[in-house]
Structures are given as structure tokens and as C-alpha cells.
Sequence to fold (295 residues):
Amino acid sequence: MPSSVIVWSGWQPLALPEPLSPAVLAEIVDGGQTFRWSRAPDGAWQGAWSDSVVHLKPSESGGLLWSSPENLAGVVASQLPPYLAASVDFARLADDLPWRSDPHLARCLEAFRGLRLLRQPLGETLLGFLCSATKQIVQIKQIVALLAQRHGREIAAGIHRLPTWTELATVSEEQLRACLLGFRARYVQQTARFLSERPGWLDQIEQLPYVEAKERLRELPGVGEKVADCVLLFGAGRLEAFPVDVWIIKAMENRYGLEGWTPQQIARFGRVHFGPFAGLAQQYLFAWERAQGRG
DNA sequence: AGGCAGGTGGCCA
DNA sequence: TGGCCACCTGCC
Fold:
């Protein structure tokens, strides 16, 4: 039983292969890869995944400092590095992207140097992106916050984890709609029923090659091309996944002259042009385009 | 105040 | 295969 007040551990360092600016950290945790991060009162980022809750802030040296509720410190110490894919040298992967012959990509890499792709739990990633259809990031965050608060187990005082798919299978469509899901409620409920009847089905996906993994994911109601690619990119470390959303369509029209191309054509262009780490390029293009959109 | 929003699925030619 | 449209409803 969690106590009524959270006692936070002292700040602890976490090393990454390359330094990170505050703005790029913000882009990583609040740029649409994940929907469970927000600012804590002291300005640090507070995030949650699985049974972990953490505060995160940049250190003077360009590394990261983290703190967690005392009772979760052990879990977080072991789960934070894989969540941040801390062993992956994204700078080296970015250097393999075709920036030498692609001036727009080159300026994206420079503007968001240090950008990383998270390695989130697959099931939670799926849930987040099932909620995302024609929603803005702020609204998706509200939805998952409600799902956690109302239907997920408490892991620290007042902080709940997301419900598992088995738990979601017991939640009525009406309750889901009450979490602001709208027509997405049916996707969540049908997917929950599907998965709860097939233990291990989702975990198997992580072992499959990209194309097959994507095919399998698309069997789930509410999972199309875009959501499947997001789940594989942000929840399974498949860097060849190239999600095509409205921002990427804009980027391809404005920066690459691909006007009138269908999402499928753009996806193929992306994988051919950017290569095996196309998903990393996508995240840079996405960050750039959003920054322009905000003015 | 009202249009619009990180898509998907189902229908039609 | 390709294009169109309904689907919910809380924000800016």
C-alpha cells in the first residue's frame, strides 16, 4: 500500500552516448513518441511506464539526472536505461542517414542533435497510439491519464500505471468513452478482447521481422499503417518503420516536393531514401515540422 | 463559437 | 487499387 506522500530519491546520474540539451529532452519525452510525461513543479519531467515513475532533468554536463519514488528506485534503476535505449548510439545511426546529400535532413539533424527514439513497453505503446487517431498530443495525454487513473493499478501515491490489456478487457465501452475516447473506445475494447484471449500474442510480435510484425499488428481493430509503424518504432525499436502522418506528409510536400503523393507512396519513398534507420529520420523531420507549425 | 484534429474501416466504382 | 466518408468530442 503506497503511503499518501511520495518520498523522492536523490538525483542520480544516467550516462548517454551523446549529450542532450533541455529542448531536445523535451522533444524526446513530449514530442509524440509517448504520452505519459509532463512538467513537475520543479521543472523536471515526470514520466511513467510499466511500474516505473521517474523525474528526469538534464545535468550540467549534458547527461541526465533521475529521481524516483523511494519504493520504486530499484525498478526504475533497471528499467530507465532500456526505456531510453541508453545503450544505443543514435548519433552514429544518424550519421548513417543520407544527410550529406540531403540539405533539409542535415539541418534537422543539427537543430535537434541528440534526439533519441524511446524503447517503450509494446503494449503501452499500442494503447497510446490506438487512442491517437485525429487527436492532438495534449488530448491523447488526457485520455491515457484518465485510463491510468481510473483503470490502472496505483504504483506510487496518487500515480497509477496504465491498465494491462487483460484489465482493459473488463472495462465497458461506456467507461472507455467516459475517458474521452470517442469512437476510439471500440478500437480499444475490441483489441483488449482480442489480446486477452490470446496470451503471448503481442510478445511474439517483437521477435518477428518488420514486415511480418506489421502485418500481425494490423490484424488488431484500429491498427492501420500509421499506428502499426508507430508501435514498432517507439515500442519495439524497429528503426526501419516509417510512420506517415499529417506532419510527415507536410514535410514531404514542403521539403521534398512530393505533392499529391499518397501516404503509402510517401512511406515507400521514406524507406528507400532514408534507408534502414528511416524511422530515426522520420523523428527528426517530424520535430522540425512541428517546430515550424508552432511558429 | 465552430471547425478541426499523429487515422481507420467500410463502402463504392 | 483508389477515393470518399462516417466516426466522437474537447480544444484552440
Summary: The beta strands of chain A are 12-14, 37-39, 45-49, 52-58, 64-67, 154-156, 159-160. Chain A has a mean pLDDT of 96.
